[in-house]
Amino acid sequence: MDTFVTVEHARRAVLDAARPMPEETVALRSAVGRTLAAPVVARGAQPPFDTSAMDGFAVRRADLGDGTGELPVAATIHAGEVPSPLPPGTAVAIMTGAPVPAGADAVVPVERATRTGDTVRFHGLPEAAAHIRHAGEWLSNGAQVLSAGSLVTPGVLGLLASVGAATVEVRRKPRVAVIATGDELVDATGTPGPGQIRDSNGPGLAAQVEAAGGDVSGPHWGRDTAEDLARVLDATAEADVLVFAGGVSMGERDLVREALDARGAEWAFWKVRQRPGKPLAFGTLDGRPVVGLPGNPVSAAVCFEVYVRPLLLAGLGRPTDRVTEPATLDAPIATPAGLHTFARVAVRRDPDGRLCASPAGAQGSHVALSLAFSDGLAHLPADWDDAPAGAVVAFERWAWW
Ligand SMILES: Nc1nc2c(c(=O)[nH]1)N[C@H]1C(S)=C(S)[C@@H](COP(=O)(O)OP(=O)(O)OC[C@H]3O[C@@H](n4cnc5c(N)ncnc54)[C@H](O)[C@@H]3O)O[C@H]1N2
Ligand code: MOO
């Protein structure tokens, strides 16, 4: 096992352990938030037929002379109807979305015509093909619409519906066991006794799993004993990924790594040159990724976003690149030389449109306020020994929406 690795090393090791989730088929309506396992091909062209883009009159331009004459109105075509061919020397009233009749080569909007009874007078000659959306104009039958690895957003869902994807091949959601450890913990809805605190990592990490596209098992609790951690490992045998929080540091009752060793876990690293989250442990148990997040709530949440979210995305076939933008620090942030600092910052635009970042309160790894009030992380590289006001940092927005 590598000990005390860099952030880059740790990130690579985590992504290397990602396993592709199996495919499953879901109904269209259930596909939102899921990731496509296969490319989607259009069943039929879009638009499927020549269609009017305006409420107006379908005409044959040759019938209009200089464009200011009159034509009899032969029929009205509504959306959903099937029109007869346009009789020569006539116009037909046509509604937006209705099929354009054979023979028509332009649509004149109602605003550019005056209808009196069964005749219509035009105010000018339309351009060729004006306001006609041609069959297959933006999608031809059989064309690939979406690639594997695409996230099904509400916008994508509408597109899937329009191209006839009644069911969708998606990656199964990774089942992620969240295990909060510590004898001091009581349920978040409970009242802590002397020496006890409410479990905040369990609910917080469970929410992070769901926001990253996973299915949560738990949160489970493990007491600080080998026996109880063994019990939890048995209870989480079905999970694709195990996420422990707490019990990974140097304390006498930091037993998570030992409990996993007893089951034959293989460790990729323990300790990362970062703050918060230095004691982060990562490995595999029977081929399943196992993460030992440090127990301090800020460390646990930040390490989840930096390492576990990309691990889950990689299993889904989604991109894992970090998206950062430059931001100028409004105030100095302490950063120890040799450790990459993930500072929680709030951002705003200054009058010149520059992105400016301020520390979101105290940066201690136990001060959960900084998670709640930040927009994301400012990366302060390990070779910096200070981050003064005015320094330009890489800002990474929280991706948990
Ligand atoms: N001698 C050393 N001590 C510590 C070191 C070190 O290098 N040498 N590292 C410190 C750092 S940094 C961190 S981070 C913590 C991580 O410790 P553990 O992962 O073993 O976590 P615990 O000791 O179990 O808990 C730490 C802290 O967090 C609170 N906690 C734990 N679980 C929860 C929860 N589910 N909800 C809310 N709060 C939780 C716990 O009560 C502790 O206060 O170790 C340092 N020590
Ligand atoms: O590395 Mo620990 O996560 O700062 O508190």
Describe the 3D structure.
This protein has 401 residues and is α/β, with parallel strands linked by helices. The protein folds into 4 domains: 2-21 and 173-316, 3-Layer(aba) Sandwich (Molybdenum Cofactor Biosythetic Enzyme, Chain A), CATH 3.40.980; 23-46 and 137-171, Alpha-Beta Complex (Molybdopterin biosynthesis moea protein, domain 2), CATH 3.90.105.10; 51-133, Molybdopterin biosynthesis moea protein, domain 3 (Molybdopterin biosynthesis moeA protein, domain 3, Beta Complex); 325-397, MoeA, C-terminal, domain IV (Beta-clip). It is 17% helix and 31% strand. The protein has helices at residues 7-16, 154-162, 201-211, 226-235, 256-261, 297-316, 369-372; strands at 2-5, 23-27, 40-41, 51-52, 56-59, 70-77, 91-94, 106-109, 113-116, 119-122, 132-133, 144-146, 167-171, 175-181, 185-186, 197-198, 215-222, 241-245, 266-272, 274-275, 281-285, 288-293, 325-329, 340-349, 355-359, 376-380, 392-397. The chain has a 7-stranded mixed beta sheet, with helices on both faces. Strands 8-5-7-6-10-9 form a 6-stranded mixed beta sheet, with no helix packed on it. Helix 3 packs parallel to helix 6. The longest helix has 20 residues, at 297-316. It is elongated, with a radius of gyration of 30 Å. The protein starts with a strand and ends with a strand. The site of molybdate ion (MOO) has 8 residues, from loops.
